[in-house]
Amino acid sequence: MKERGDVRVEVRQFFERRPRVGHPYGDFFMMLSQRGVAELSERLEDRTLGMQAVRVLLAMMRHMDFENRVDVSQKNLALALGMGLSDLSRASKVLVECGLVERMANRRGWYRISPRLCWKGTAKKLEEELRPRAPDSRSRASTQSAAP
Q1: Coil vs helix vs strand at 92
Q2: Which of 18, 28, 80, 94 has its CA 20 to 30 A from that of 74?
Q3: How far is the C-alpha of 116 from the C-alpha of 121, rounded, in Å?
Q4: pLDDT tens digits for range 25-47
Q5: How far is the CA of 121 from the CAs of 34, 66, 93, in angstroms?
Q6: β-strand pairing of 31-32 with 111-113
Q7: C-alpha dihedral, 27 to 85 to 45 to 63, nearest 10°
Q8: pLDDT band at 137 (very low <50, low <70, confident <90, very high)
Q9: DSSP assignments along 18-79, one per residue
Q10: What domains lie within the chain, and their CATH numbers?
């Protein structure tokens, strides 16, 4: 009988939740995609991206929070980089056009780094983000009603 009790205690201890060990990088960790880096490199080679845009991208990545949200205003980002708001806006527009950065729909002037380039979050959420999305049902209904 005593042996069985010991086994139960050991099994219970094995399945108890262990304390989470912190990451050696702390909160300053993100995954970087080699494919995303190759795309960035191509944009530099074909001169789609200039050094101003790269500076802005790296600054955005430095301020990137969970699920790639860039949690810094354009004004503060411009101040940190020592550039004017118009230069920052122009560089941000180039980054959006290249697909390296996305505008956040619910916050004017705020951005999110494309998950194709890098990721800060759970692997499950990254899989969801990279999964192709079905077309919006409203746009599908409007195209079906417009068909002859």
Answers
A1: helix
A2: 28
A3: 13
A4: 676 778 889 999 999 999 999 99
A5: 17, 5, 25
A6: unpaired
A7: 0
A8: very low
A9: PPPPPPTTTT---EE-HHHHHHHHHHHHTTSS-HHHHHHHHHHHHTB-GGGBB-S-HHHHHH
A10: 31-121 (1.10.10.10)
pLDDT, average across residues 133-139: 57
Q: Which two tokens stand for residue 49?
A: 């991206």
21, two tokens: 């060990």
For the record, the structure tokens of 23 come out as 């990451």
Question: Cβ distance 78 to 85 under 8 Å?
Answer: yes
Contact predicate 92/111, CB 8 Å? yes
What the block records as the tokens of 135 is 């077309």
pTM of the model: 0.70
Per the structure block, which two tokens stand in for 55? 């500076």
Q: What are phi and psi of 102, to 5 degrees?
A: -120, 145
